[in-house]
Amino acid sequence: MESDLKLKTEFRSTLPQEVLDGIDQIAALDMEDAKQGAIDAEDLDPEERDDVEVEFKRFMALELMRRMDVFTSEPLGPTGKVDGLWHAFILYTQEYVSFSNNVMGGYVHHVPDTPILTGSEMRSLLTTHFDDVDTDDIWAGDLCICWTCPE
Fold it and tell me: N- to C-terminal Cα distance for the chain?
């Protein structure tokens, strides 16, 4: 299932198995309810639902790698489109808590006023680790601090 996230082959070979297993679990995550919830809340364009899901999962894969000391960085941040899906996923509390605890090693808090990487730094992390990252749309521009998400 990992191939959906397109982790770069040369990078994949350097990761510990427990990180690879976590990334595979992230890739396999069923997000249909969260995607529909984000569409219903008008936080997600139905035409972009699958593309935003892939980028959300890449965001979580990077967060997993950060938590497992694959790399060090400031806290990661999403763009508005990825954040909208994250908000919807959090509302499915049982699924989100299970995902956080079982895959991410603990609850992934959504802290909207935490200092985060710049958009450029986040795009660099994504393109270093994954192929075919949508830097022209989903990851274009600034990152989101919820109430200041760029439209």
Answer: 32
